[in-house]
Amino acid sequence: MMVQEPGWEFGLDTGVSTPTLAMSATGSLVTTGSQDLGFNVSSETRCSRQDRVPVSVLGHWGSNRGQRDEHPLLALQHLYQHHLVWSIQGWTRPAPLSFQRNQQCEAQQMRGTSIPAAAAAPQHDDGDDDDAIPATFSRDVPRWFLCLLAHFLSATNTTTTTSSTTTGTSSSTRMDVLWTIPPLLLLLLWSSSTFVFYFKKCFYVAWMMCLAVLAIPLCLLKSGGRDVENMRVIRSLVRHVKHLLGLRFEVSGWEHLQTKGPYVIISNHQSSLDVLGLMEVLPDRCTMIAKKELIYAGTVGITCWLGGIVFINRKKTSDAKSVMAEAAKTMLDDQIRLWVFPEGTRNQRGDLLPFKKGAFHLAVAAQAPIIPIVFSSYSNFYLRKEKQFNSGTIRLKILPKIDTKGMTTEDVASLLDKSFNLMRSAFLEVSDSVPQSNGTRCH
Ligand SMILES: CCCCC/C=C\C/C=C\CCCCCCCC(=O)SCCNC(=O)CCNC(=O)[C@H](O)C(C)(C)COP(=O)(O)OP(=O)(O)OC[C@H]1O[C@@H](n2cnc3c(N)ncnc32)[C@H](O)[C@@H]1OP(=O)(O)O
Ligand SMILES: CCCCCCCC/C=C\CCCCCCCC(=O)OC[C@@H](O)COP(=O)(O)O
Known about the structure:
One of its GO terms (cellular component) is endoplasmic reticulum. Pfam families: Acyltransferase. With about 450 residues, this protein is of the alpha/beta class. It contains twelve helices and 16 strands. Strands 2-3-4-5-1-7-6 form a seven-stranded mixed sheet. α1 (about 75-80) crosses α3 (about 145-160), α4 (about 165-190) packs across α5 (about 195-225) and α5 (about 195-225) packs antiparallel against α6 (about 230-240). The two termini are about 35 Å apart. Bound molecules: ligand LBKI3ST6 and [(2R)-2-oxidanyl-3-phosphonooxy-propyl] (Z)-octadec-9-enoate. Ligand LBKI3ST6 binds next to α5, α6, β10, α9 and α10.
């Protein structure tokens, strides 16, 4: 048995019988044209000639066979040349590369269509109809995309091999590589939900950081420093971000926000995406209570500070309590509303976490009403563990205010229970009725 050297992992799910693939006795993956692709198959391999539908292979791109010094991306090019690339499902470095081939029915439909000469590969016919090589690429991966992909891979390879010898050739091929990046990116966005997940998350953070760069001077111009009025600037800058991420908000209960004077808004907290919903309904003169770590979030942190966000140290209850007691005073003095996430942390477990007591102490201390706002579950479009970030609809339900007039610290526990129960049933209700993701993707 061959010793596997460190290299690149890849996954291949061919989905149909794969006449061009066969397992050799040594466990390496070869084409029927006896061209060794240099893939060493690991012990988890479930591929065999008998395994027909679906065939999945967990392979290893090592350096102990065949294409010894080749760029790992060349693996993809080989697969392309041998008609094995159908759609790229996931592509991460150095995590598994996954290639997925079309369903058998599609393959059958496509038999008989001609293959581009450049991509032609040795075909094997053992007389078994199932073994016929589907003669074109999958309908869901346009050929021009695959051509670009192959072009990119060739260019990458050329760059690798020529850079040490001819600088001129290397720089021109590098340009080729650069030009093929955008379509490649599009291909990945279109075919890999994992890639979409990371792309959207990175885009969100990067875009918010850029917006914050813009927000800082605008806030300074508006108020000359830290001021709750800066939240208007932040709100108007953030409002479009939902469109970029494919999110839609449906808000109900607007009338409950028509309350005059200071109040405390409490809402459930699923993700940093909550900021988008928060900005949808944020009333004037309203700022938030946030963990102190947020102040170190670069330009976003500075913007939060300028927006008058009250930072608390969750690890030091006594400090947090005194900051919140101070905030209750400011609420009254400056007629400010405060938004608190009483779960105290992000939670996407399909239910609410038990509430912390601070928000209720705050409301009682300021004798200000509490307005609960419930965000429907994100689980129909955003799943952190499963790496899914589709487009979707979020329902925001603004509940009637809960008065705290005449309440004392003794009432905090019952106030908390009442608020929790109201929000929990509203959460279950809006999450049940939320439309399914409108961004589901077919692979
Ligand atoms: C265009 C530019 C764009 C860029 C910028 C984009 C956006 C920026 C703008 C806006 C975005 C802002 C978004 C901010 C989101 C931030 C979300 C968060 O950070 S969530 C995390 C922080 N929040 C919280 O923690 C919630 C508040 N926490 C609490 O209220 C807690 O109670 C606590 C005060 C931290 C204490 O917590 P602890 O774990 O100790 O538990 P308890 O709640 O059980 O309390 C213990 C004990 O203390 C008593 N207590 C609590 N609070 C008070 C109080 N205020 N006064 C008196 N006593 C208090 C409580 O009763 C308990 O005692 P006992 O058990 O005896 O009753
Ligand atoms: C130096 C750069 C550092 C980069 C940091 C990136 C900052 C994020 C950038 C853009 C996102 C904009 C929204 C910011 C508001 C997010 C608030 C948030 O969600 O904080 C989490 C907090 O409620 C609970 O934290 P935990 O769940 O306990 O953990």
